[in-house]
Amino acid sequence: MRSRPLCNPVLFPTHRSQHCETCFKTRIPASAAAATTTSKSARELERCSVCKKRYYCDRTCFTVAWKGWHRWICADKDMEDLDYEMLKMIVMSIERLRNGSFRDTISSAAPDASTTATTAGMPLQEPLELTAYVFSTLMGHSTVSDPGTLAKYEEIATRVREQLIQIKFPFKSSVSQGEPPSVQELIQYLCRFHCNNFSIHDAQLFTMAEGTFPVGALFNHSCRPNAIVMYEGQIQIVRALEDIEVGQEVCSSYVDNGVQRQERRLLLKEKYYFDCHCPRCEEEEEGEGDEKEESKDMVESESKKTADQRKTGFRILDDLIEGDQDGPNGDGKVDGEWLTKQFEAIILPGAKSLQMVGPPLKAPKIFTRASFTSYILHSLVPLIQSGATEAEYRARLFDVYGKLQSTEHCQPKPFTTTVMTHATSFFNTCLEHQSWRLASKIGCFILAQYLMIYPRHHPLVGLHGFTLAKSLWNDVEAGMTSVRLSYEILGLTRRILKVSHGIQRGDENGDLVREVEAFMKTVETELGSSPLPSPSA
Ligand SMILES: [Zn+2]
Ligand SMILES: [Zn+2]
Ligand SMILES: [Zn+2]
């Protein structure tokens, strides 16, 4: 589903020089552009000559911005404040819609809008009237916001209001009758913005801007989402991560699913004012009124242990990944030498073994980082590769959870998010130092952890797969074994990214899938030109 922002999204000041403020296209670094590209506009953004602060692809994008909003903000020194900027943009957008002077900047900013919007039968995003209407219905939770925050909003609202009067922004609609909205109304806008805003990210999931997308905000949250929010320029795309049944709720996630239970609950409560009742959190809410039928029969004296045993499916996940122990002393302190020893034990899977879907695997005697990696990858990757249905995949995943729960594991527990965080930063260090073998092993471990925590088609899984495949391919000493595994992981990556990023041409998300395919061709050539020994065990 495509939906639009209520007003032009606000780029983080630190990201302004890398993105066009109108179409949000990413600037190609001059060095890379020099080798491949033709026109100057493709590699360098042009700066507004008056404020020297905002960047645009070219004259066209600048003109759209100037007529649409930039002339009203160009000289405003307060625009360095994100809340201030967003509020001012929202007010201007709503007023221009009310007085009929709104021009659709989105379709005029994207020269290829006609093709990008309608290929594959996708309808254009909703009309702005609807966007604005939905914004008026969103919850701002201003009654539960703390007084300090509201005081801050009031100060911002007052400043925005005075500034709009000072620059003589035309409030000529019948609703406004020459006046900007009252400070109280502006505070409501800010509250609504804060409970419903989105961080806009690029294809690599790096955030760069904040946006108000009222229609996208209607989707509820789940810690096990079946949809993901992506962006094409400044259009928001809500993509299904799996087959969704008729009548089943479509949920995205407001927080990172890799965050532990307590932290997630805190984040959701502080920013969005709710307790999560998703399939992963449900158990937490027992005894709070809307629990499942079966738990009503629970006797009060039932011990915690018995309650744990009753947990099934996603409800086990948080128990599994909980814990902050890592390092030789379990105090969370790790160093390179110790980490190297932990991850070196991992045996890279053979490419062939990731293709064969078999019955559920027997769990190892004890879960270490090595046996965990091998067990998860062999259990789940073949199902993803074969395009198993969601029900089949879930059944396998829950079987995996059950085994992880009932089998002994080494100390520190290998599958906590703490271990994952350390592994991720060590993975990046190894990539920097071109220690490809070790990087590949850690990369496989991280992939296993991701598959345990995130939906299989989550963009993070695909992006990580691509990095892992490159690392494997770079491990020249490992010869064809590593090349074959790289090819297998690329196939997995492509499958995932097609779902998470789509295949739209001329869009940064879709381009990523094509980048993976181009890389696959290179690897394929290498595989084709060498004799294929039987895959190693
Ligand atoms: Zn542009
Ligand atoms: Zn300017
Ligand atoms: Zn939840």
Automatic annotation (TrEMBL):
Residues 293-308 have a biased composition (Basic and acidic residues). It holds the Pfam family SET. PROSITE patterns: SET (PS50280), ZF_MYND_2 (PS50865). The keyword Cytoplasm does not apply. The keyword Zinc-finger applies. One of its GO terms (molecular function) is zinc ion binding. Gene3D superfamilies: 1.10.220.160, 6.10.140.2220, SET domain, Tetratricopeptide repeat domain. Residues 20-74 form the MYND-type domain. Residues 284-308 are annotated as: Disordered. SUPFAM superfamilies: HIT/MYND zinc finger-like, SET domain. InterPro entries: H3K4_H4K5_MeTrfase, SET_dom, SET_dom_sf, TPR-like_helical_dom_sf, Znf_MYND. Keywords: Metal-binding, Zinc, Zinc-finger. Residues 43-255 form the SET domain. This is SET domain-containing protein.
